[in-house]
Design brief:
Blueprint: E1 4-7, E2 10-13, E3 18-24, E4 33-39, E5 46-51, E6 58-60, E7 68-73, E8 78-83, E9 92-99, E10 113-114, E11 118-123
Parallel strand pairs: 2-11
Antiparallel strand pairs: 1-3, 3-8, 4-5, 4-9, 5-6, 7-8, 9-10, 9-11
């Protein structure tokens, strides 16, 4: 069982940066792969990035590669999403997720636990 709490969302101008944090409960956090997803109003939740249990394997949505960086600190039970060069199209609610497994996965159905979401708004 994992509980996730996100923070770090907010309003930023185009070209700016934000770093999202995902605080996870449980002493076995290192056994869970994690990911970030985002959802705009009226649309399905879409994949952003994922990282395996050790941080050795990472995947990104093709459109975001080079701008976003996923990382984790298992000693702190925390995951991160660094977002640079933000665009208005990045505006969405961003969710942290974890799954009962070691491997990084790219689809939301693979994940078992979800944070509450944090709003990221990028203005023109």
């Amino acid at each position: 069982q994992v509980q996730l709490v996100e923070s770090g969302g907010g309003l930023v101008q185009a070209g700016g940066s934000l770093k999202l944090s995902c605080a996870a409960s449980g002493r076995t956090f290192s056994a869970y792969a994690m990911g970030w997803f985002r959802q705009a109003p009226g649309k399905e939740r879409e994949f952003v990035a994922t990282i395996d249990w050790s941080g050795g394997t990472r995947y990104y949505a093709d459109s975001l590669k080079g701008r976003f960086t996923i990382s984790r600190d298992n000693a702190k039970n925390t995951g991160y999403l660094q977002m640079n060069s933000l665009k208005p199209e990045d505006t969405a609610v961003y969710y942290c997720a974890a799954r009962n497994g070691y491997r990084a996965k790219l689809v939301r159905e693979e994940y078992d636990y979800w944070g509450q979401g944090t709003q990221v708004t990028v203005s023109s």
